[in-house]
Amino acid sequence: MSGPLPVSLVCCGLLGTTADDGGILERAFAEACATQGIVPGTAAYAHCMVGVHQSRGQSALDVFRGLFSEGQGRAEAATLSFERSFRAAVDRTGLKPAPGAEQAIGQLRDAGVRVCLITGLSRRLLSLALDTLGWWRQIDLALSPEDVPRGCPWPDLMLSAMLRLGVEDVREAAYAGSTASGVLSGKRSGAGVVAGVLTGGHTGDRLRTAGATHLIEGMADLPALLLGGAAAGPASSATGAVAAAPARSAPQVPLERRNSGL
Question: Which residues pair with 197 in a beta bridge?
């Protein structure tokens, strides 16, 4: 009986999984809602923030389309406000890596596993985040909903990463993220491992319902899950380890270029 396929690619969520935004994302959504006349302390505000939470991992435009279904123009205006608020907040306070994230990414890449970050942020905001974190050369690829026909919860981001980074079998890919929409994207792509990360967006129960095959406490546990005994560090809370890919040289596919507007 053959063992598990080696993992050659892992796609990770950004905010709440590999990066800590300190609440910037939620505040940017709240400020965008306020530009549409929905202010804290009202029932409409509570309804909007519940919708924002449930839609974590999706693009801002898709979130606002769900909240303001009566008109595309209102959703687009709110999205523009969100972009301004998020960028201004990052410029003021910055972002920081989630605990253990940089070490985990380094361990995985040292073991020959390519690393892609996928996000619901626009390409401009993704570029801003990577600039702020200094991660352009720490990963192999970074994708936003603008790079594919559909963002999460559809599998397009995962499948695009597999194609761009030369994955031969979808089961060689893994996903790790903290939102139900991201987990569902990983499941729909056919990834062999879909790890729910308990550091952000949604509860373990919700991540399991979305299709998580494993739950881990944080990014520090991911190398142990994917590499087994080849990884140093804390043991994963998930049972079983996945076969490690043979060591590889530097990535053959260039990193996505920065948006020239940043």
Answer: 216
- Domain membership flag for residue 1: no
- In the chain, the number of structural domains is 2
Q: Is 4 within the bounds of a domain?
A: no
Tokens of 107: 């361990």
SS3 214: strand
State how beta strands 141-143 and 19-20 pair: unpaired
Q: Which residues touch 140 (CB under 8 Å, ≥6 apart)?
A: 109, 114, 115, 116, 165, 251, 253, 255
- Are 123 and 204 part of one and the same domain? yes
If phi > 0 it is left, if psi is from -120 to 50 it is alpha, else beta; for residue 37 that is: left
> 38 with 143, same domain?
no
**pLDDT tens, 139-165?**
999 999 999 999 999 999 999 999 999
> Would the pTM count as exceeding 0.90?
no
Domain hosting 202: range is 9-20+98-230
Q: Which amino acid is at 250?
A: A
